[in-house]
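Session log. Operator J.P. requested a structure for one protein chain; no other inputs attached. Running the standard single-chain path with token output.
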Amino acid sequence: MEPDELEFIGENATIGVIPNFNHDPIYLISGAVGPFRGGQPLHIPLWLAMHLSQQQKCRIVPPAWMDVQLLEDLKEEEKRSRNFTKMPSEHYMVEAKLVLNTAPEDVPQSDEIKTLIKDIWDIRCAKLRTTTDMFLKGEGEMVKLDNVSIVELHTIRPFLPHAMDLLSRIQQARKGPRANTTVRDHSLLMNSLSGSHSRH
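Structure written below.
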């Protein structure tokens, strides 16, 4: 998937809003949304919430995980663990980007939250690159990608074909014909991991 497609999927997650207008239900392809009653909270697709917020027709109710203490704890756990910590939302980066850029005034301590989410993202992406690098160097037979989001996985895809090609040439030079089998196994495993992850 391309980045735009991944963001599109994330935009369909629901988020709480408090509208300041009244309106009958809106019928979308995904189902009915509403009715809207001024002052009464409801959950709607993220993309619609951003549209209404830009029109100043609602206030965003930030997800419970957009909390400084919770994110600080999550950051420390991510730093300590060799594995990937389960994130509170599969689309946390898309949600954070849209909410914090569109309606930061609706999120208490929005600047601190934005910084913490960026820190967590950087830690996880660095861990993902290290894990993949170890696999390509033959230091690990399996790559554990539990709790890695599709958006995070996408960050390593651009360099994988080049890395696999380089690995192929190095192994062929060192080991001769037997290298082809090793590289093919690595390629099959990586394709399997990517394919199985995309189905979740």
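Operator note: The mean pLDDT is 79.
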